[in-house]
Amino acid sequence: MNIGNKCKIKDISKCLVDEFKVQQITKEDLLNLSGNLSTIELNDNSIIYKISDLDFIQSLLSENEKSEIQITINHFNENVEDIDCSSYEYQISTGKLIIIVLESEDGDNLSSFIMDGNGELLFNYLSKFIGDDIEKIENPLDEVIEELKHFTPYGKYFK
User: Is the pLDDT of residue 159 over 50?
Assistant: First the structure.
């Protein structure tokens, strides 16, 4: 797709469906995925998509993201009992789900987007439609992953 000056939300939506295997979902579907989505504020012109094809999500990940997800999975497996693998938070943080919210102030042109999940390729693609004033907010889980990278266990059983 020629990006040029095309920032029409319907064009971007078509491209996401065709090239990124997204599925449009309703606000209710999103809330059913997680009742704890207070950080995502939806307006009337929001269009919500999800990607849940694990193989396709893997193709969107950078090598750094893949290693961070593996660290997260290892951490969950070793330190969290009775983890709900079907929870929204688990699926997002382990690279099994991506949620995209396209927003439009005028109902016609893309004004912003929210992406919850990993996929640097997709994030960079969507960023091209917004311009230079994009703000990337770090997931608190990213901070935990960074700390885990530097964690060194100590004691007589660890060398």
Answer: no
